[in-house]
Specification:
The protein is 46% helix and 14% strand. With 343 residues, the chain is an alpha/beta fold. The N and C termini lie far apart (48 Å). The structure holds flavin mononucleotide.
Length: 343
């Protein structure tokens, strides 16, 4: 392990002391979860991707996605789109919603997005990349950042050229997920390829892909030479991993992992915040996903998840989750009956 703390970096005027970013994840990194991740050590957070065409429609759901917390600055709002004019308008909208920086998504591999020549499909059209970045940067007074993959497929990797276009356009920070679009989420992220982007430019570069703990964060940084690390899937049901990674980046000893009671307190806070933010119907659906992740590794968790997915009432979900986490601590069979029969 390295014993030299990372110095952090700037996004425009914002000094990011802890070079650890929470990855944007649609349907996961909403405001309730970002707040928890921030507390565990994320230096920056970014909203879920917001389609540039959606912002004009002013839907409640879109507004909710752009809601940011007073306690999470510096925070970016992420936008996606293929058309420079839509991107310009979306960037202005995001700035008006209080974003400290606007992050442009050119990494999304989803077919529906790529068909509109947005997300990672843009990597095939370098002149358009430049036009989109120029439109966003000219539209706002806050810094604009970019998130990419390493190219469309193994035969057309262009991570260095895209990084240079980004720097020449005035992008303030670049994040590289070390996979091509063709790889989707398969195989292992290529941290050497991320390093090619870092070598090509002098703006801050964050490396992303398959960082799961302190050791992998330090290894990715060693191989890529990046200024910081972005972590996504590893925080699902496990936001305290950010405390472990941030301690390693400060060259400090790892903190104690939360015990069973502390974990339940985090889960409960998360569930209550989902309810307050989304309302009961959506919170109930999201709770199924998050509680399933949080329950991994606990006693009888597969059996619990099967039952929990069938519970429809919010109050019953809370009761079952509470009993399940208490059961793990005590292995008390009477408590098991509570979550086994919650409906
Ligand atoms: C469910 C899910 C949703 C995602 N949504 C977004 C998104 O909205 N915007 C984005 O730039 N990347 C998105 N990503 C990609 C992640 O930000 C990240 O690049 C990827 O998961 C690799 O990092 P990891 O190995 O740390 O998870 C998403 C990934 C997942 C698994």
């Amino acid at each position: 392990m390295s014993n030299i703390p990372l110095p952090g970096f700037h996004i425009g005027a914002h000094h990011v002391r802890m070079p650890l970013a929470l990855a944007p994840m649609a349907g996961i990194t909403d405001l309730p979860f970002r707040r928890i991740c921030k507390r565990f050590g994320a230096g920056i957070t970014v909203t879920e991707m917001i389609a540039s065409r959606a912002v004009e429609q002013g839907r409640e759901r879109t507004e909710r996605m752009a809601e940011i917390g007073a306690d999470e600055h510096p925070v970016g709002i992420q936008i996606a789109g293929a058309d420079p004019e839509f991107i310009r308008d979306a960037a202005r909208w995001a700035e008006a919603h209080g974003a400290d920086f606007i992050d442009i998504n050119m990494g999304c591999p989803v077919k529906k997005i790529c068909k509109q020549v947005a997300g990672s499909a843009l990597l095939k059209d370098e002149p358009r990349v430049a036009r989109i970045l120029a439109a966003a940067i000219a539209a706002v007074n806050v810094p604009v950042t970019l998130k990419i993959r390493t190219g469309w497929d193994a035969h057309s990797k262009n991570v260095e050229r895209i990084a240079k276009i980004a720097e020449e356009s005035g992008i303030a920070m670049l994040t590289v997920h070390g996979r091509t679009r063709a790889q989707m989420f398969n195989g292992h992220a290529n941290w050497e390829d991320i390093g090619l982007a870092k070598l090509a430019v002098s703006i801050p570069v964050l490396g992303n892909g398959d960082v799961v703990d302190a050791a992998s964060a330090l290894e990715m940084l060693r191989i890529s030479g990046c200024d910081g690390v972005m972590v996504g899937r590893a925080v699902q049901g496990n936001p305290w991993v950010l405390a472990e990674i941030s301690a390693a980046l400060r060259a400090e000893a790892p903190p104690e992992a939360p015990d069973g009671g502390q974990r339940w307190a985090i889960v409960r806070e998360h569930l209550e915040a989902l309810h307050a933010h989304h309302g009961e119907h959506i919170a109930s659906k999201l709770a199924r996903k998050h509680v399933a992740w949080y329950s991994k590794g606990y006693k009888d968790s597969a059996e619990f998840r099967k039952h929990f997915q069938r519970i429809s009432e919010w109050a019953a979900q809370i009761e079952a989750a509470e009993a399940f986490f208490a059961y793990d601590c005590s292995a008390n069979e009477q408590i098991k009956q509570v979550w086994l029969h919650a409906a």
